[in-house]
Amino acid sequence: MIKDPNSITQNEVEDEPATSKRPVNRRFLLFKIDLFVLSFVCLQYWINYVDRVGFTNAYISGMKEDLNMVGNDLTLSNTVFTIGYIVGMIPNNLILLCIPPRIWLSFCTLAWGLLTLGMYRVTSFKQICAIRFFQALFESCTFSGTHFILGSWYKEEELPIRSAIFTGSGLVGSMFSGFMQTSIFTHLNGQNGLAGWRWLFIIDFCITLPISIYGFIFFPGLPDQTSAANRISMTKYIFTEQELHYARRRLPARDESTKLGWSTVPRILKRWHWWMFSLVWVLGGENLGFASNSTFALWLQNQKYTLSQRNNYPSGIFAVGIVSTLCSAVYISKFPKARHWHVSAFISLIMIIVAILIRTNPLEPKIFFSAQYLGGVAYAGQAVFFSWANIVCHADLQERAIVLASMNMFSGAVNAWWSILFYSADMVPKYEKGCYALLATAISSGVVSVFIRSLQIKENLAKKSVPYIDANDIFGEDDDDENQDEDEGENLSAEFGDEEMTEVPNPFR
């Protein structure tokens, strides 16, 4: 059943350690969550995209010629990667409910880092496909798994900004990979008999390894699975037991009677959440068709641009993605009447414009560049749709894990054949089919978003509002002061002694 703060007994409170009666400095706690939770998942997603985009950069920087790759080999290798991603998606999210994310995510980061290192030794297309399949198995823990973790730490009004920062970290990784490949080709190509693209994979691994170690030591995982008594991690030096207890109680109440079992599937399937959010991200993910299938880099190669231009010019797409993602998150978080579907409708409009521009002028550089950069706006959909699903599904932990994984899984399943059908390498430079596909997904994703909003309104009206849990209320504090947020860091009561709790400003609030 869902626990109401009023139903929590005095015995439950007294069972907590004596220090749990101290007030928690909320801003300082949020700052620490940002510093150790958000930092690791962003670093992990950043290196994920450095590794992933690095493959395309290697392809256009000599790997294609060295390994005699022809025709649709690049598209096929990406499809193999997508299949591995699909296979690992839901299992990885469910594993996070059983194995502490600190251990599992750090292990997966190390595993795909080692596989990335193995790429520098490949000598055939078959070896590439084998390695990329297993890379994807481990990388599939990152995106939906992180959104699941963020939804376990952050409130509804805090979530969009954090989701946007997380999405932006991957886009920064995409930009960084292009510039890094250009620098590597300039300074390391031919060193020790290795081509520049092989050095890229070696350096990627050298960056990935310390991120994995950092996560194992400092990342606290899920609040329900975290304890300050853990001897291996540094959590005990970062969070007090009282802060962790507060972190578990600060979010809206959820149904604690639901467990992972055979009843989970029918419980999820009878609700609209799984069906509609999976559908909207299938469509929203394909709005990224031009950006995610390296069409710009291939177009630049087809038009005989230099190697540095091929690696650097596509970075503008990711820059637009970062700006649009952050602006969308600020809009949803800061404006009371803002809604997720507003941003979805805006993305749909921009994608329609992109499709028309490319279809009518595919060989005009100024127009093609403008359209490709505008296409980066679609990246905002990642933060918008996944934070939306996190909010709607918050009351059911297992449903939230499966819905978030399914969104990414079905998007990947469709993209496995969608990219071959509409954005394959042999369709350069006009991408006629891709333009029509983008028109269809742009319009459809906007319509489905409006429908989801109508279902959400209907659901909210049909059920009683769940009381909001304020952990300091549970600890028996006086909440009569309207300025409690400002005063909560003041001295403790005489019962616990006078100890000033330093307030640290949070840059993300």
Radius of gyration: 24 Å
Question: What structural class results from the helix and strand content?
Answer: mainly alpha
Order of helices and strands: HHHHHHHHHHHHHHHHHHHHHHH
Cα end-to-end separation: 32 Å
Total beta strands: 0
| Integer tally of domains | 1
Give the percentage of residues in beta strands: under 5%
CATH architecture: Up-down Bundle
Which whole number gives the mean pLDDT? 83
The biggest sheet, with number of strands, parallel, antiparallel or mixed sense and barrel status, is: none
| Basic shape | globular
Q: What's the multimeric state? A: single chain
* Low-confidence blocks of residues: 1-20, 466-509
Q: CATH-wise, what's the superfamily?
A: MFS general substrate transporter like domains
Q: What name is given to the CATH topology?
A: Growth Hormone, Chain: A
State the helix count. 23
Helix content: 55-70%
Overall CATH class: Mainly Alpha
Pfam families: MFS_1 (PF07690)
Membrane topology: Multi-pass membrane protein
Keywords: Membrane, Transmembrane, Transmembrane helix, Transport
GO molecular function, one term: pantothenate transmembrane transporter activity
Please outline what is shown here.
This protein is mainly α and 509 residues long.
